[in-house]
Amino acid sequence: MMNIELPLDDTWTSQEIIDVTMFYDLILTANEQGVDRQRLLSAYQVFQMIVPTKGQQKQLDRQLQRQTGVSLYRTMQAAMASQRKHFKFSD
């Protein structure tokens, strides 16, 4: 398994780190085999509460993209536009 250093903020609480890590995992899984769309959207809402500013969200997106080649923004754009229960992102 590839060792990925997920972009995290050291000011986050343990629960926030768990929540954001779970969101990243769902993003990566959505790009590989697909996930339950509602679960991904719910995790995104939690992510937005933890990271409320667009600037910080974009910074984390760039960091994740550098590490994995996967974009939070593009994945979530497609997930929000989709009507399917099971969502798999493909370029």
> Roughly what fraction of the amino acids lie in strands?
under 5%
**Count of alpha and pi helical runs:** 4
Sketch the major β-sheet: 2 strands, antiparallel
Number of strands: 2
Helix share bin = 55-70%
| Structural class label | mainly alpha
The multimeric state of the shown protein is: single chain
Largest sheet, spatial ordering of strands: 1-2
How far is the N terminus from the C terminus? 23 Å
Q: What is the 3D shape?
A: globular
Gyration radius, rounded: 12 Å
Mean pLDDT: 95
Task: Give the SSE string.
Answer: HEHHHE
Low-pLDDT stretches are none
Topology:
Blueprint: H1 14-32, E1 35-36, H2 37-50, H3 54-68, H4 72-81, E2 86-87
Antiparallel strand pairs: 1-2
Helix pairs in contact: 1-2
Textual characterization of the structure:
This protein has 91 residues and is mainly alpha-helical. It has helices at 14-32, 37-50, 54-68, 72-81, and strands at 35-36, 86-87. It has a two-stranded antiparallel sheet. Helix 1 (14-32) packs antiparallel against helix 2. It is globular. The two termini are 23 Å apart. The mean pLDDT is 95.
